[in-house]
Amino acid sequence: MTRGSSVIGTDAAGAVRGLAGRWVSLLGDGDFVVSPVGLWLALAAVASGARGRTAEELAGLLRVEGAAAAEAVTGASRAWGADGGVTVATGVWSTLPIREAFERGLPDVRFGQLPGDSRQASAQEELDAWVRGTSGGLVRELPLGLDGSEDLVLLSVLALRARWRVAFAPELTRDAPFTDGDGVTRGVPTMRQRIPARWAWTVAGATVVELPCAGEGSVRVRFVLGADGEGPADVLPAAWAPAAAREALRADAAELALPRFALRTKTDAHAHLESLGVRMALRPDADFSGISAVATYVARVLQEAVVEVGEEGVEAAAVTQVVMTRSAAAPRPRVVERIAFDRPFGVVVVDGTGGVPLFVGWRRGTPSDRDEGLSGRSGSDRP
């Protein structure tokens, strides 16, 4: 059993992969980037205080509940935080009296007070500052601003800054044609590097290229290219498919051509939860009595995520915000294959074990190396 799966359990690791595949199918085929691990951590922390049917329903998606959910959040956060360049942080701010058992079960979570309307501006500043600090400045503020209706705000932050084990030579970057999802071809800055054949493979017709990051136990970044016309739901799962499903590249090396790009999207995960099997938690009669004696339910779930890929390495961050309210409210090769990401493609950051997707993104539009606001059928926007 690998380090990550032994810490969080094979069921939880499988739940993240399952959540990733199901969530991607709901995001459409426009540009997006999301963090399945970020959403799983946030919901699992909330699920540790769920009871009755609410807990059973969340367990169907997360495969953990109650005390086991709290243990999984702690173990998984520590395991993924031990991967090179990864930061994991969770915080809970509340106007409600929090049960001691809930707080004790999440020893690595920061707990704080959420002030009333009279100090709403200062609360916004405090939480924005926490998001900036824990994400390394990649996300500057809360995905969803405070409006005074919140009784509990849970924030889960996952951030990554990593350098490639072998950097791309900047002088080799030059414009190359990229055909977007609408069939429009434009020249975009494209990085080039010859990579060992073992860094690439195919899964059911999709080509996967893995670029290792520097440092022992570091994350792995995989880029996935499917057949013309295939969308993210068809292509992205190849990035976390088991080794048994892979077919080795029939070459000694590969010439990689990869656009330099950035993605930033904001996704309303609350709108997707019913399709993922979570309903009770979203209703005023939800049972979160393990969190507080005051009846609450999940009112909003929003995630903002960003990924930037360049010659030196990769940066990525995701902030998941859950709002709860009261129920009343090498040598020269002989054979070289060319792999050009010159049409819509996916990017997936997996943990150090290679089995759990931390970030999942899809680039349908013409790549840009600036994180301009992007929107699509994923429900993404940016203020």
Description:
The chain is an alpha+beta fold and 383 residues long. It has 9 helices and 17 strands. Strand 8 and strand 9 form a beta hairpin. 23% of the residues lie in helices and 33% in strands. Residues 1-8 and 373-383 have low confidence and may be disordered. Strands 1-17-16-9-8-7-10 form a 7-stranded antiparallel sheet. The chain has 2 domains: 3-162 and 263-326, Antithrombin, subunit I, domain 2 (Antithrombin, Chain I, domain 2), CATH 3.30.497.10; 164-262 and 331-363, Alpha-1-antitrypsin, domain 1, CATH 2.30.39.
Characteristic key phrases:
six-stranded mixed β-sheet; disordered C terminus; Antithrombin, Chain I, domain 2; 9 helices; Alpha-1-antitrypsin, domain 1; seven-stranded antiparallel β-sheet; 17 strands; 383 residues; 2 domains; alpha+beta; 23% helix; disordered N terminus; single chain
